[in-house]
TrEMBL record:
<feature type="domain" description="Band 7">
    <location>
        <begin position="82"/>
        <end position="240"/>
    </location>
</feature>
<comment type="similarity">
    <text>Belongs to the band 7/mec-2 family.</text>
</comment>
<dbReference type="GO" id="GO:0098552">
    <property type="term" value="C:side of membrane"/>
</dbReference>
<dbReference type="InterPro" id="IPR001107">
    <property type="entry name" value="Band_7"/>
</dbReference>
<feature type="transmembrane region" description="Helical">
    <location>
        <begin position="39"/>
        <end position="61"/>
    </location>
</feature>
<dbReference type="InterPro" id="IPR001972">
    <property type="entry name" value="Stomatin_HflK_fam"/>
</dbReference>
<feature type="transmembrane region" description="Helical">
    <location>
        <begin position="67"/>
        <end position="88"/>
    </location>
</feature>
<feature type="compositionally biased region" description="Basic and acidic residues">
    <location>
        <begin position="1"/>
        <end position="10"/>
    </location>
</feature>
<keyword id="KW-1133">Transmembrane helix</keyword>
<protein>
    <submittedName>
        <fullName>Slipin family protein</fullName>
    </submittedName>
</protein>
<keyword id="KW-0472">Membrane</keyword>
<dbReference type="Pfam" id="PF01145">
    <property type="entry name" value="Band_7"/>
</dbReference>
<feature type="region of interest" description="Disordered">
    <location>
        <begin position="1"/>
        <end position="30"/>
    </location>
</feature>
<dbReference type="GO" id="GO:0005886">
    <property type="term" value="C:plasma membrane"/>
</dbReference>
<dbReference type="InterPro" id="IPR043202">
    <property type="entry name" value="Band-7_stomatin-like"/>
</dbReference>
<keyword id="KW-0812">Transmembrane</keyword>
<dbReference type="InterPro" id="IPR036013">
    <property type="entry name" value="Band_7/SPFH_dom_sf"/>
</dbReference>
Amino acid sequence: MRGIRRRAEDGSSSSTRQGRMPAAQRPAQALNRTSRNGAVVFTAVLFVVAAAAGCAIAAAAVGEVNLPVLLVALACGLLAATSIHLTMDWEKAVVMRFGAFNRTAGPGLVFTIPIVEFYSVRIDQRVIATYFGAEETLTSDLVPLNVDAVIFWMVFSPQKAATEVEDYASAVAWMAQATLRKAIGRATLGEVATRRDQLDTELKEALEEKLDGWGINVMDVEVRDIVVPKELQQAMAAEAIATRERNARMIMAEAEADISDMLRDASGNYADDPEALRLRTMHLAYESVKQSGGTLVIPSAFSEGFTGDVAEAAAKAAAK
């Protein structure tokens, strides 16, 4: 994972910092990162071997080791080191000839013509993760937010990455931050907080369009954290509680309205059929006895339904 941290020219604003890697992740990055030490050692050994061979040949020709012989040895070492290069499996070498792009080469050994060609840059073609953020960015409803995100990208065209932009890794981080700020400025606080997936998709599409001309493909963009100012957190929590209470009361009111409609319909059915009402009364009594474990408490108004056969049926049910 790569991080980029820069300040603006005035050196005063912390909001322009790029690629701040969380401290907890830095040790793992250092342990797992690959190394080019083998390529560096190869170049050094090649220089020493070529210089020693040149020195031996020149010394044998003149019969002694003097300053011209040492200069010849130095020239041989430099020519060998600048003509034979070693690139790693994930790298592409951009070769320039007389200052113009000639070809990309690698991985493995790359040979160039001394003086005529030179090895300008090595392009890493692995997937790279760059951490970026937007500090105190105003939403459309004027709420300052701190948003942290990660972009996963890779170079698919080494030629464009070397010739179209000066420092493509830094450009990706700066472009990602600018795009994130614009996306936040177009949305409200609620939209940013609840539509994180939509924000990820918007950032990915915008960055793909802008970075394609630099030979860079955006694999994914993930918003890691959205921090709301502390002074607004209590107000947002109170608003959320009030909203939930209002919804609960509305649901209870709707339930009461439904119950009253059903009771009104039921009363219409029982109005013309006293026997059905008595059977319903007996059923309610049975349920009461069943739940109370044999004890039946009947209000005076409720007892009016227990007449005649209904009272006898209720008594039998209570005896059971």
